[in-house]
Amino acid sequence: MAGLGDSFMLPKPGQETEHLWVLITKPDPATHEALMVNLTTQRPHSDRTTILNVGEHPFVQKASVIFYADARIVDTRLLDAAVQRGACRMHAPFQPPVITRIQAGIATSPLTPRRIKTAYAAYTAAGLT
After folding, report:
1. What's the number of CA atoms in the CB half-sphere (13 Å) around residue 127?
2. What pLDDT, on a 0 to 100 scale, did the predictor assign at position 11?
3. Which domain holds residue 57?
């Protein structure tokens, strides 16, 4: 079952290019929903709230950033089913210190959607972070 820190290679809806996505909350036991963000290559115009450097995760081969503007609420049962049918694949989990940095960026990134900030606050209040 997908959980906090698990990562997945999957494309964004309507696109073919895969990105690495990471769950940054535990799934809600009632809804099975969790928050997920993706990594992208750092560019001059990137949100630099959370930069991941080579060595912080096996996937990171060059400086990358968390793309908070595209954060999602996901049903982890659907992620598990996608892995089972081969529509996406699991990658190495993120270590707790890196997850903590990513989580901190939810509140501080100017690009995090309001609904994601609200959801993250609710997950934190429920002890799911």
Report:
1. 1
2. 75
3. 7-125
Task: Read off the pLDDT of residues 78-107 as tens digits, 9 standing for 90 and up.
Answer: 999 999 999 899 999 999 999 999 999 999
**Residue length of the chain:** 129
On whether the pTM is more than 0.85, the answer is yes
Residue 69 and residue 116 in contact, taking contact as beta carbons nearer than 8 Å: no
The CATH number of the domain where 42 resides is what?
A: 2.30.30
Cα 124 to chain centroid distance, Å, stands at: 16
Q: Which two tokens stand for residue 23?
A: 């769950």
* Max Cα–Cα distance, the chain, nearest Å: 41
- How many Cβ atoms sit within 10 Å of the Cβ of residue 88? 18
